[in-house]
Amino acid sequence: xxxxxxxxxxxxxxxxxxxxxxxxxxxxxxxxxxxxxxxxxxxxxxxxxxxxxxxxxxxxxxxxxxxxxxxxxxxxxxxxxxxxxxxxxxxxxxxxxxxxxxxxxxxxxxxxxxxxxxxxxxxxxxxxxxxxxxxxxxxxxxxxxxxxxxxxxxxxxxxxxxxxxxxxxxxxxxxxxxxxxxxxxxxxxxxxxxxxxxxxx
Length: 201
Prior knowledge:
Blueprint: H1 17-40, H2 46-50, H3 54-60, H4 64-77, H5 88-103, H6 106-114, H7 122-148, H8 156-173, H9 180-197
Helix pairs in contact: 1-4, 1-6, 4-7, 5-8, 5-9, 7-8, 8-9
């Protein structure tokens, strides 16, 4: 499973065969969730998909929910990370492109459907907390931009909603891909609006 998702080192035994086996199991879990959705995920199919013995799955993740959660967390970690290059426009553009790239994968689409109101399980609530951490990272980046004078004082949560909303809209409609040009335009319009409406000091 490529899909541009990042692999973090497993928490247990950072090297060796067990780490490789765990990575294969988590990758297989992501593939199966992308194919069948979270509700349709079948625990017993993981070993075959990963090419490992069933006991390797059960030993590392005795509980189905634990396996799904860890696979989701690995995927979500880099779904929409944000850098700090000193250029807030550039960093927000890259943030949107990373977000769109993650959401455009089959797994990302599965997560979008699973995160709809009224359909959340304990697994999805766990993932939501991780995605909230991604939003918090973007918030910190905006606050840093304000401190540096790149932006006037702004509600960072509102800014995040303004720039990320079009990404979800375009990706979920499925008519076309979210492009760098889209990201540049969205960020440009939102930042221009924030600067133009900022109260004078």
